[in-house]
């Protein structure tokens, strides 16, 4: 396993451009299976999870051609369905949670889709019920092998219907949506996810010939079509990476510009960091963070009570940035309650921050109270292990602000979501080294 060696306590300076959005990429890449025609996609991030999915698509027979950095063409005109029932697929599919989203497109176009129980971050249970219940509503027959942990759905022809999703699952909505575009008749999905990346998928499918209305709302209506064609698509910048760089600038008292952020699609992210007292300035389509040499102060609610920051489905605050918010709060003036509502076990990394000297009370698996140091006591360097992508980057930000040299092990978790993160950080002055 690789390790990052980080010499903390240095101010950074310069500009950094966010990569293409990981969570959008996983949806968009699965959608190429819906057509035999060429689909061109730009701004694809070069990260482990995306590369795993592209390799899986190649094993399925999708022709992939690199045009340039982050730009590829895909053509699924000779899909190898026998791969779906091979031992190799059972290995490949388990390595990536996003692989679940190949099921909807395969079912819609070829009448069957299979997937082993996917892996991914160790952030608690994430059920697949929404995915399969939606596909069953469209007329698919479902089967599951408990011994092999292998799922399958089959249907001669999907038929549109009305469905109310139990949860506004992003990947579940994407999977059902990609199946419904080729179903017979009208499908209505209520309580659909409406994240910008899901909106991007809808817009891409409509350019391919789908008929989706209600884009951006939680009520999607899809008129099924017989076939889809090719298209060209450019992915949004990664909002989680943008939030990570805002937190990094604040914690290291650095002056940073984050370029080409697609402000319109950031939702509550800038305002949530402002609640921690961080100056987030809009400059065209860039974010400018001045050096917080005098620190930053957490706001209170209007009645004077302690600020509570929690996650929620879009347009609420994304759960992927709560760990960044928590780390940033450790050096603020004031206190904040962090409430992780949507996932289990995502706050358990705080024991590493406590070891570094942070004042954090872990109330239960979902809530932590942070009492900020106001930079009067810096975090101390230590040796840590990255438990998942987001916690790993949060610990990296803590290490970059800490006094001394820290080590972060299991950095493959960070590489799953952040492209060449050490090189990009060195370009703005960070003292970080990758050690095999």
TrEMBL record:
Its main location: cytoplasm. GO terms for cellular component: cytoplasm. It comes from Pseudotamlana carrageenivorans. The keyword Aminoacyl-tRNA synthetase does not apply. Residues 7-425 form the Enolpyruvate transferase domain. GO terms for molecular function: UDP-N-acetylglucosamine 1-carboxyvinyltransferase activity. Cell wall formation. Adds enolpyruvyl to UDP-N-acetylglucosamine. Belongs to the EPSP synthase family. MurA subfamily. Keywords: Cell cycle, Cell division, Cell shape, Cell wall biogenesis/degradation, Cytoplasm, Peptidoglycan synthesis, Transferase. It holds the Pfam family EPSP_synthase. UDP-N-acetyl-alpha-D-glucosamine binds at residues 97, 320, 342. This is UDP-N-acetylglucosamine 1-carboxyvinyltransferase.
